[in-house]
Amino acid sequence: MSIRTLIAAVALGAALTAPAPATAADEPVLTIYTYDSFASEWGPGPVIEEGFEAVCACDVKFVGLDTSIGAFSRIRLEGEGTAADVLLGLDVNLAGDARASGVFVEHGADLAGLDLPIAWDDPVLAPFDWGHFAFVHDTERLAEPPGSLEALAASDLEIVIQDPRSSTPGLGLVMWVRAVYGDAAPDYWRRLKPRILTVTKGWSDSYALFLEGEADMALSYTTSPAYHMVAEDRHNIRAAAFEEGHYLQMELAAVTAASDQPELARRFIEYLIGPEAQAAIPTTNWMFPVNGQVELPDAFATLVRPERTLAFAADEAAANRKAWIQEWLEVMGE
Asked: CB count, 10 Å around CB of 51?
């Protein structure tokens, strides 16, 4: 054994036998299931993690899954054995299902002062950001986008959308079409189908195809152009304003019933909707914050602000979601 190897071995042995710092051993762990882009290094997760850890004397661990729908399904599947203390990113269209599942408990946060596009006082599900679904385009490739769902179907454009079974925007589009066309939704899907280049599992894949020039438009958010303006100083990515209105996207957080840190989880929800955490939302998650104290970047003033917000009540969405997705599947399979 060389002297270098001997020194390394002694150092390793000392490290293995030395007691761990008391603070690390005593800190409770708060585990948060969310979608991968939220937990990523460029998402709001790291900023919010650092901020909450500074005041909670705890260790925050984000578990990033492919989609928020997948995170919700995993918590239900894991049941009482889930490691999750908090689910973050649940779509408002799944609120009824979330309540009925029995896997969440009251958050205890005061929602009365939040700045929201709709009234919301749910004791179990707390909103933390919002926006509207939209089709985005590149003005350098498509100067005059369609101005309605109907015009989109009648165009010769190629679009990319997401699967409503696995993607929040995909589900939002199903709800959007239903809100506008009602029982005539299947007929609209048949008219739109020739425009659909592909259906991806999640938003990231379809948005990448759009940015690579493979499609003329992509299903995304009214807030998506803000990223390109603020982070890239690009002003050619825009959302098309549709005359029928735009369907609401509001993301929710909830405390799991199986959490072994329920009070810490409730403190996290309060922190999440407070001004410090909310300040990270516009330029990391690229959505509108729910806290009205947050100052928005100038780019947000240039975004499409729908004159009409479309949204189903949570119970109606829960009662019809599977049937409406099935309508979509049947047309896509024709």
From this structure: 19
**Contact assessment for residue 161 and residue 206, using Cβ atoms and an 8 Å cutoff:** yes
Instruction: Name the residue among 227, 198, 225, 228 with its Cα closest to residue 214.
Output: 198
Query: Cα–Cα distance between 334 and 327 in angstroms, integer?
Result: 11
Residues 6+ apart with CB under 8 A from 312: 93, 175, 178, 179, 320
Amino acid (1-letter code) at residue 297: P
Q: Is the dihedral of CA 196, 199, 205, 207 positive or negative?
A: positive
Specify the amino acid at residue 57. A
Half-sphere exposure of 285 (CA within 13 A, CB side): 28
First to last CA, the chain: 71
Say whether 248 sits in a helix, a strand or coil.
strand
128 close to 272: Cβ distance less than 8 angstroms: yes
CA angle 81, 31, 250 (to 5 degrees): 105
49: phi > 0 → left, psi -120 to 50 → alpha, else beta; which? alpha
CA distance 175 to 294: 30
d(CA 7, CA 29): 35
Return the C-alpha torsion angle 107, 113, 116, 122, nearest 10.
30
Dist. CA 140–CA 212, nearest whole Å: 13
Query: Which of 30-34, 261-265, 314-318 is least confident?
Result: 314-318
Whole-number Å distance between alpha carbons of 162 and 89? 17
77 with 303: CB under 8 angstroms? no
| 172 Cβ contact list (under 8 Å, min separation 6) | 91, 93, 133, 247, 249
**Encoding tokens for residue 298?**
């100038």
DSSP string, 122-173: -SS-EEEEEEEEEEEEETTT-SS--SSHHHHHHS---EEEE-TTT-HHHHHH
pLDDT digits (tens, 9 = 90+) for 162-180: 999 989 899 999 999 999 9
Phi-psi label, residue 286: left if phi above 0, alpha if psi -120 to 50, beta otherwise: left
Q: What pTM, to 2 d.p., does this model score?
A: 0.87
